[in-house]
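Researcher: Next sequence.
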Amino acid sequence: MKYNRVGKSGLKLPQVSLGLWHNFGSVDSFENAQSILKYAFENGVTHFDLANNYGPEPGSAEVTLGKVLRSHLRGHRDELVISTKAGYKMWEGPYGDGGSRKYLISSLDQSLKRMGLDYVDIFYHHRPDPETPIEETMMALDHIVRSGRALYVGISNYHYNDSEKAFQILKELGTPCIIHQAKYNMFERWVEEERMLELLEQWGVGLIAFSPLAQGLLTDRYINGIPEGSRITHSPFLTESTMQRKLPVIKQLNDLATKEMGVSLSTLALRWIMRDERVTSVLVGASSVEQLQKNMVALEENALPHDVSVRIEEILRAVETA
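Model: Next structure:
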């Protein structure tokens, strides 16, 4: 496993990080989740990423990780980077959502209890809250570090202007932001369009990319139709109409990957993200040990030849203008 420095901080993350958004909740097999986490750690994936509402049910992914930390990963806390977030709705009432100091600190205290931890390594504000002054949110993050609840702080889903404000405030407070978690894949390129990568480089902030496979679109899963029981049948983020609209480019990218490079489409998609040195880590999900293993193998070699990068851009532009 290769480890990359997070921006200009002293922290390093594995180039493949494991996200616990799906498949680690109370409705899922604990034995399968435990096997995935155990395999990940034994093969160099030292970063596990969560949020307060990951499950389902909300909070149950943190409970699952806590159980594994007390069993198979007992004694390895100092070899792990554990991150969690708050920002989306977690509980009913006026204090269970947003970016207020009350919500963020209360939520993290609950997360620590669910995981059985004294601290997390990274705590993120999960999304901007237009109803809370950004100064209040950043001051809460600063307090969280100073109180020992987290070692570092980050932001997620923040666009350019809000990111710049957050970085400035946190720097002045003395608790710099070290990482930004953003959706980034061949179909979702706002971080390029907004010159976010340049902003992160300027402030010494690392980028960790989530949804690198576009909810499975950048795999061969849907090329020959929608499998029974697929996530596309119940996901609010991935619809059949979206899949059908993207299918021509998916097929062309798949041909480029398999016929010209001899790799899978998912491998091509992951290498495409990690082609930029400003990307610290790619955040992958996994429903099985085998799936995680494939994603890890995909990045054993990061090289993406220039001519392949050019071909990818040609394919994406051709479909966009069709």
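Model: The radius of gyration is 19 Å. Residues 240-261 form the longest helix (22 residues).
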